[in-house]
């Protein structure tokens, strides 16, 4: 032991006088404004470069400073980035682009496109631009929001891709030709997300235009998928849509599956369909049982449930955001902390991250500027106001600014370990990543409206309330206003009250005494706690029972109607009705639209097979309690800055 | 491009002869360049080419000695053709499959500003950084990644540390992420940037794991430089116990070369690495190596805690790991600083889910050892937990005395440091006790007692006050001694010249060291005062008397209460969540009791001091504290951001509803003349946003009903009386205008929230007159003539049944009520006639409907009602009290 050295340590017990900050201020309003403006500049840099170097190609190549067509030749980035302009308040540019787009009559082109990508990026982008055009000061047609050039364009695209749904199982093909329908010899293997990611756009389209076919095919595909879940309630990642045989047997929440779960929840909220929530909750039970380990979600075999690939995927990161929507903030934060840990290790999240070796997966080290993590952060910040989440947002912003920026745009990170760049900027960087970052740092953005106020507009359907908040983002971050759907779909059917019904169901409408709903105060004794626990368990068991009761019928025909509404018991019997003159058969529908539209080749629909469609008979389909959240436990108000509570009453 | 290279490689490998390969490469290049229209693509191909050429040159060397030359030469022609064919394929592949261009890693740039005091090895030069660190006595190194936001934040804090420590601690930073750099090669796997490591002259580096704020980092460095104190008497141990939460006392032989001491020393350093936030003292008692008989003494460690003293088991090995584990496992405190690490953690959950806890939010200066508010908490906690144990009695008294001493010594130090002339300071300095370890590691000068003596004359009055309060004999003895010794200062110093050089210029001479020491004390004081001014409770300042009801409350009430202090400057966010803005509080200090079992928290509203804090705890134990309804919505915070509520609403273009909070909730729903419809929502539940437009639409439809008010409240954030706390969201509740207890909940479980359902719910619960009015409003909003007609006829029949009902009532009523009912009947008659014959006269109908529902006209009725209401209200109040 060298005493001299230590003694020197004493000797240098010196401090000079300096300036100090009084305590740590986390993020003041001004800090947020600065960050927000930085994100805006980030967007502008990439957007301007796209216009300058790449338009009218699909995507910008940020290293070569030119453009390239990737998903189709429809100026993808331009359409995808459109609503980000509105969210950032750049209305003039939005108007300019809309004027360019509306000169386009249709999306007729002899190209093969991904049904999934076209739906979420093009249809989603056009829909949200349509719904936001009033906000952005565009002179809308009379009849808006149920009518408009962008909506017509979106419908045109939907008509072109709907051919993919013409299959035995009702699950769509992965690829479609915009002019000729499904290409001959097209593979019948589609990923799970490619089947279950339509309900938001198609549901919105049906409700805005009044044509029910879109919502029907999308729901049908969802139910078909539900029918194919494994015995233990899991879904694989690829399925043969012709035979219904699973091809990819690994079950996870990431690539190939992710937006299926997302759309179940968001679809339930947007269309107020408890049955979708039921499907989700059931899937969640299996996911939490088999996939969840230490707040990570691994990949397991869908039939047995044993772990196959212990990786975290960059795409998994949407999950915490989804949980935050249904009130399970606790689990969401736990998982988000894990994902954020990967981010701070590399500065980006690699496509695959091996949880056991704690390193990026081999050959999956890239980061294509994905938005999932920041998406979850934005949702959770909105829910909790936890400044830690702002810090996470800054982490993301700094990394991208430091390593992904190029003279003409922002580039995909080729390898998160050394931050080499690749010559690609996917359109979701402008559509999602920058949008979510901006929204995180702009808490006063109109998108964050919680429904306390709305705008009144006069439509042929009567006076509508729109922009009342509660926007549902599709998986490409295109917001859909639920109140606009209501305006076009429910308003024309709206019967304000019906005296006979009122009298008949007066007991039901009378509601419950408030005291029944009041939260039971725990009296703190161990007895009470254990009682609560057992209640909780009991409830779980009941839930399992309920799950068991659900069964699907495989029936022929297309449409279904609801009969025998039994409100008291909340049971709806769904029966197959073979009334061909009343229900629109997809085949007929397709023929019809393809005849109307000369740019579409009807020849390919000559051999439309007989359809088999799935009808869901879910006990408690009218169980609207599925569309509510439990109140947060008392201590959770302190769950900020990384603090977590176990919670007594969490799901 | 990958395929291209591979194919070429195969071609060349097969040929095994460089010449032909190069030749074919030339061709390939020619082909490639000419066939490629894309300039950038061609460029990319060229670079790849050069790479492949160099690859082949390597191959050439390897194959030089092979004897395949001749064979290959014969095959040249065939292979050439083959190669060209292959190349054509490859080129095609390259053209169709646009292989992406890839850029290099970002290049290194200086991370710290040019004029920084931190030496920045931004290219990751680990070797030179290491060299420099080892040449310095003590160095503090930050390993960073340039892209990390956390590093950028820490950089600023690190610079503040450098500003104050750079003269004596080598402050440097290494970019340890830069790909290909020395540092990256050495440390390829880092999970969290930055990594902060302090390197003492000898031994391993010690990682800093505390909060990344300058004051905490400086505390860490100070602790490393002065890791323990040497004690010689029991008095000192007691004193240390009073000022710290716990004390680790090692009694070892500390002669140079002692292994036992080395182990203890490294244990202490490692403890500092683990936890710099706690208020733990380390002390060393030196013992001779061997006893009188020549047997070696065994080293031992004692852990002094508030309730007991434990000895490190003799049979356990004398290693840093084992000692450290023992300390962390057995360590127990009755108060502690909670330092939330701001990462995924259960720190608060551990404390709050087990038992009710008192949180004292107070500014902490990590560089200062004692904090009066914390000591107050310590004292109170000892009192609360004191079940007549003499140990605690003694400790409690010591803490109380320690607080006073601390206050006076602080005051003295302030006075002293205000005097600029150094000579004066030196002359005033004397030592009360023998200066210890002047030439060794553990020097710790007790500022308190010594300094209080140093300027005896000036502060005699203060000291006498101190003595009065403490009422201890030793004090007066000390004071006298001090004054005596003050006069004999020179002589006193001479005693200590034995081991030191006499030279005045020797900086390590006691006199110079003392001078130096005093200068540093003052500097330190100025910094800490500037950083976070010391605050003292009113008690020590004004000598308040306190009640002692709190003594032994634990045994009297059997209610466990744990005590924690939190740095309000760092953790004000938690206080905000409980509805306390610490920046508005006196001394930025606040006290909150959180009881998870009853899902309740209590806030001390008065400024925290000895009296109020004790009263607060006593009334908590008596169950007389009111439950706090404060939450984050109750305060104005600059650091919490959420969507702003629209208060002004243009009724022509917009529709808004009132947003309530815990303060405005009760007054709103309790309005006697208004029916209120409240939607409970939660930001944590998207189902609420998903249907809130329905609520707005209904509010808009029923806007002509002045008597009905629509409002919303966030039921998760706001704390409401128990009977208004809901179990799930969204929940819609109708509070009628008079019978408030008759409130009803919309059946969210069985009915979807739609406009017709919500209207039906309200119609079913409105009183008949209000229902009539509502129906009329709805009729006016129908779009088609036949719909309207049927609607109006239903209003008519409703009106008739109401008339019928009122007539029955009239028969039973007394004279006073009859007048009232008669008035109503008149309105209804008029309504009936209008509805039957001229429903287009909407204005007239509106007038009658308004009269029917207006409040003014049933004033008499009201007075009658008052009595009833009072009774129900009284009952309601009773319910509240019970809960």
UniProtKB/TrEMBL annotation, chain A:
GO cellular-component term (any): membrane
Location of the active site: 117, 258, 351, 372
Location in the cell: Endoplasmic reticulum
Record flagged with keyword Calcium: yes
Gene Ontology MF terms in the entry: calcium ion binding; mannosyl-oligosaccharide 1,2-alpha-mannosidase activity
Primary location group: endoplasmic reticulum
Biological-process GO terms, alphabetical: carbohydrate metabolic process; endoplasmic reticulum mannose trimming; positive regulation of retrograde protein transport, ER to cytosol
Highest taxon in the source lineage: Eukaryota
Keyword Metal-binding: yes
Cofactor(s) required for function per UniProt: Ca(2+)
Pfam families noted in UniProt: Glyco_hydro_47
Compositional bias of kind Basic and acidic residues: 523-537
Function: Involved in the endoplasmic reticulum-associated degradation (ERAD) pathway that targets misfolded glycoproteins for degradation in an N-glycan-dependent manner. May initiate ERAD by promoting the first mannose trimming step of ERAD substrates, from Man9GlcNAc2 to Man8GlcNAc2. Seems to recognize and bind to exposed hydrophobic regions in target proteins.
PANTHER family in the record: ER DEGRADATION-ENHANCING ALPHA-MANNOSIDASE-LIKE PROTEIN 2
Name used for this protein in its record: alpha-1,2-Mannosidase
Species of origin: Agrilus planipennis
From TrEMBL, chain B:
InterPro entries per record: Thioredoxin-like_sf, Thioredoxin_dom-contain_11, Thioredoxin_domain
Domain of life: Eukaryota
Annotated SUPFAM superfamilies: Thioredoxin-like
Domain Thioredoxin, chain residue ranges per copy: 136-215
Protein name per UniProt: Thioredoxin domain-containing protein 11 isoform X1
Organism: Agrilus planipennis
């Amino acid at each position: 032991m060298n005493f001299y050295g230590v003694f020197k340590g004493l000797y240098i017990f010196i401090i000079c006088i300096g300036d100090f900050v009084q305590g740590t201020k986390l993020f003041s309003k001004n800090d947020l404004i600065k960050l927000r403006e930085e994100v805006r500049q980030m967007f502008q840099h990439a957007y301007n470069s796209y216009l300058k170097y790449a338009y009218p190609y699909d995507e910008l190549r940020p290293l070569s400073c030119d453009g390239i067509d990737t998903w189709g030749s429809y100026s993808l980035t331009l359409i995808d980035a459109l609503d980000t302009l509105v969210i950032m308040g750049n209305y003039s540019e939005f108007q300019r682009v809309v004027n360019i787009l509306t000169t386009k009559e249709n999306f007729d082109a002899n190209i093969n496109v991904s049904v999934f990508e076209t739906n979420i990026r093009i249809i989603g982008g056009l829909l949200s631009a349509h719904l936001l055009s009033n906000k952005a000061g565009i002179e809308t047609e009379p009849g808006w929001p149920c009518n408009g050039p962008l909506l017509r364009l979106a419908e045109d695209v939907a008509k072109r891709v709907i051919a993919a749904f013409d299959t035995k199982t009702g699950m769509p093909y992965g690829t479609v030709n915009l002019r000729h329908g499904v290409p001959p010899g097209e593979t019948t293997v589609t990923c799970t997300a490619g089947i279950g990611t339509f309900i938001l756009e198609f549901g919105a389209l049906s409700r805005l235009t009044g044509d029910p076919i879109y919502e029907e095919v999308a729901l049908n595909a969802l139910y078909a998928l539900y029918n194919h879940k494994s015995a233990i309630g899991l879904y694989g990642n690829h399925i043969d849509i012709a035979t219904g045989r699973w091809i990819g047997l690994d079950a996870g929440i990431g690539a190939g599956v992710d937006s299926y779960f997302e759309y179940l929840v968001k679809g339930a909220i947007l269309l107020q369909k408890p049955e979708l929530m039921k499907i989700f909750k059931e899937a969640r039970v299996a996911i939490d049982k088999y996939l969840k380990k230490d707040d990570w979600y691994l990949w397991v075999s869908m039939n047995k449930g044993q772990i196959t690939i212990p990786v975290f995927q960059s795409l998994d990161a949407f999950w915490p955001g989804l949980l935050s929507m249904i009130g399970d903030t606790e689990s969401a934060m736990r998982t988000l902390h894990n994902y954020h840990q990967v981010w701070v290790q590399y500065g980006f999240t690699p496509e695959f991250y091996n949880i056991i070796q704690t390193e990026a997966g081999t050959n999956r080290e890239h980061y294509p500027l994905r938005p999932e993590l920041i998406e979850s952060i934005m949702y959770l910040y909105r829910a909790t106001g936890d400044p830690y989440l702002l810090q996470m947002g800054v982490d993301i912003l700094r990394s991208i600014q430091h390593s992904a920026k190029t003279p003409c745009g922002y580039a995909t990170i080729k390898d998160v370990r050394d931050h080499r760049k690749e010559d690609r900027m996917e359109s979701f960087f402008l559509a999602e990543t920058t949008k979510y970052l901006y929204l995180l740092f702009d808490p006063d953005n109109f998108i964050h409206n919680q429904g306390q106020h709305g705008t009144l507009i006069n439509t042929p359907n009567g006076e509508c309330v729109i922009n009342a908040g509660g926007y549902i983002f599709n998986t490409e971050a295109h917001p859909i206003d639920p109140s606009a759907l209501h305006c076009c779909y429910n308003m024309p059917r709206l019967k304000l009250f019906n005296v006979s019904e009122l009298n008949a169901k007066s007991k039901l409408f009378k509601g419950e005494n408030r005291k029944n709903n009041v939260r039971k105060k725990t009296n703190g004794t161990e007895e009470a706690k254990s009682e609560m626990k057992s209640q909780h368990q009991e409830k779980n068991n009941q839930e399992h029972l309920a799950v068991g009761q659900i069964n699907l019928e495989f029936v022929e025909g297309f449409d279904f109607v609801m009969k025998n509404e039994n409100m008291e018991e909340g049971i709806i019997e769904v029966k197959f009705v073979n009334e061909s003159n009343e229900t629109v058969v997809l085949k007929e529908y397709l023929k019809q639209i393809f005849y109307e539209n000369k740019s579409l080749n009807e020849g390919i629909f000559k051999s439309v097979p007989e359809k088999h469609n799935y009808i869901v008979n879910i006990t408690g389909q009218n169980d609207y309690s599925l569309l509510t959240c439990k109140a947060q436990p008392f201590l959770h108000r302190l769950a900020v800055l990384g603090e977590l509570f176990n919670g007594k009453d969490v799901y | 491009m990958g395929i291209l290279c591979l194919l070429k490689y195969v071609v060349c490998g097969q040929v095994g002869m460089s010449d032909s390969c190069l030749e074919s490469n030339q061709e390939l290049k020619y082909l490639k360049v000419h066939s490629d229209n894309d300039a950038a693509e061609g460029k990319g191909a060229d670079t790849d080419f050069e790479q492949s050429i160099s690859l082949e040159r390597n191959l050439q060397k390897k194959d030089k000695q092979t004897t395949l030359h001749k064979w290959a030469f014969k095959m040249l022609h065939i292979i050439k053709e083959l190669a060209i064919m292959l190349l054509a394929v490859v080129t095609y592949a390259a053209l169709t499959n646009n292989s992406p261009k890839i850029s290099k890693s970002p290049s290194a740039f200086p991370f710290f500003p040019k004029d920084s005091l931190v030496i920045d090895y931004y290219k990751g030069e680990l070797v030179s950084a290491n060299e420099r660190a080892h040449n310095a006595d003590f160095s503090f190194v930050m390993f960073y990644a340039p892209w990390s936001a956390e590093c950028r934040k820490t950089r600023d804090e690190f610079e503040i540390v450098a500003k104050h420590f750079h003269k004596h601690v080598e402050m440097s930073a290494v970019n340890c992420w830069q790909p290909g750099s020395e540092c990256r090669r050495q440390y390829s796997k880092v999970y969290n940037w930055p990594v902060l490591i302090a390197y003492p002259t000898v031994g391993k580096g010690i990682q800093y794991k505390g909060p990344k704020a300058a004051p905490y980092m400086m505390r860490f460095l100070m602790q490393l430089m002065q890791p323990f104190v040497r004690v010689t008497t029991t008095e000192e141990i007691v004193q240390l116990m009073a000022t710290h939460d716990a004390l680790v006392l090692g009694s070892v032989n500390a002669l140079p070369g002692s292994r036992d001491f080395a182990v203890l020393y490294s244990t202490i350093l490692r403890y500092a690495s683990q936890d710099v936030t706690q208020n733990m003292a380390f002390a060393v008692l030196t013992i001779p190596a061997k006893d009188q008989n020549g047997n070696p003494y065994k080293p031992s460690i004692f852990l002094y805690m508030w309730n007991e003293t434990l000895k490190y088991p003799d049979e356990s090995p004398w290693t840093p790991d084992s000692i450290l584990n023992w300390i962390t496992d057995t360590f127990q405190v009755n108060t502690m600083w909670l330092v939330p690490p701001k990462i995924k953690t259960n720190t608060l959950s551990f404390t709050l889910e087990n038992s009710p806890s008192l949180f004292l939010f107070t500014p902490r200066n990590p560089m200062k050892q004692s904090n009066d508010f914390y000591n107050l908490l310590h004292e109170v906690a000892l009192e609360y937990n004191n079940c007549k144990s003499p140990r605690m009695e003694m400790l409690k008294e010591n803490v109380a005395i320690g607080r006073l001493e601390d206050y006076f010594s602080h005051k003295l130090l302030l006075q002293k440091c205000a005097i600029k002339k150094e000579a004066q300071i030196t002359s005033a300095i004397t030592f009360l006790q023998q200066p210890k370890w002047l030439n060794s590691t553990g020097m710790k000068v007790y500022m308190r007692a010594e300094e209080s003596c140093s300027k005896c004359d000036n502060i005699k009055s203060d000291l006498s006050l101190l003595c009065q309060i403490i009422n201890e004999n030793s004090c007066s003895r000390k004071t006298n001694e001090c004054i005596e010794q003050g006069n004999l200062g020179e002589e006193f110093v001479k005693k200590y010249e034995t081991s030191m050089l006499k030279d005045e210029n020797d900086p390590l001479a006691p006199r110079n060291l003392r001078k130096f020491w005093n200068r540093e004390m003052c500097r330190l004081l100025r910094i800490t005062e500037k950083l976070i001014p010391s605050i003292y409770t009113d008690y020590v300042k004004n000598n308040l008397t306190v009640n002692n009801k709190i003594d032994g409350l634990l045994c009297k009430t059997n209610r466990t209460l744990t005590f924690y202090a939190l740095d309000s400057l760092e953790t004000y966010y938690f206080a905000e969540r409980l509805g306390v803005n610490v920046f508005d509080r006196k001394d930025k200090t606040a006290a909150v009791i959180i009881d998870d079992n009853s899902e309740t928290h209590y806030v001390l509203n008065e400024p925290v001091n000895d009296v109020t804090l004790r009263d607060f705890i006593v009334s908590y134990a008596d169950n007389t504290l009111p439950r706090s309804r404060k939450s984050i919505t109750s305060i104005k915070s600059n650091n919490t951001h959420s969507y702003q509520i629209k208060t002004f609403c243009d009724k022509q273009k917009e529709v808004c509803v009132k947003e309530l909070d815990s303060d405005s909730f009760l007054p709103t729903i309790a309005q006697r003349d208004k029916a209120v419809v409240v939607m409970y929502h939660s930001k944590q539940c998207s189902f609420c946003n998903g249907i809130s437009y329905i609520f707005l639409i209904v509010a808009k439809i029923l806007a002509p009903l002045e008597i009905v008010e629509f409002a919303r409240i966030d039921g998760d954030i706001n704390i409401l009386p128990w009977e208004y706390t809901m179990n799930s969201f969204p929940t819609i509740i109708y509070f009628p205008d008079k019978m408030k207890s008759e409130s009803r909940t919309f059946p969210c479980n069985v009915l979807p929230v739609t406009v017709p359902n919500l209207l039906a719910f309200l119609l079913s619960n409105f009183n008949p007159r209000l229902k009539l009015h509502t129906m009329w409003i709805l009729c006016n909003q129908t779009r088609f003539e036949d719909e309207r007609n049927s609607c109006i006829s239903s209003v008519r029949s409703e009106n008739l049944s109401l008339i019928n009902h009122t007539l029955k009532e009239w028969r039973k009523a007394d004279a006073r009520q009859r007048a009232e009912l008669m008035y109503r009947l008149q309105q209804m008659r008029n309504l009936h006639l209008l509805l039957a014959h001229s429903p287009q006269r909407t204005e007239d109908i509106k007038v009658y409907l308004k009269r029917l529902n207006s409040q003014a006209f049933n004033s008499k009725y009201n007075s009658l009602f008052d009595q009833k209401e009072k009774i129900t209200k009284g009952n309601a109040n009773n319910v509240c009290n019970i809960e």
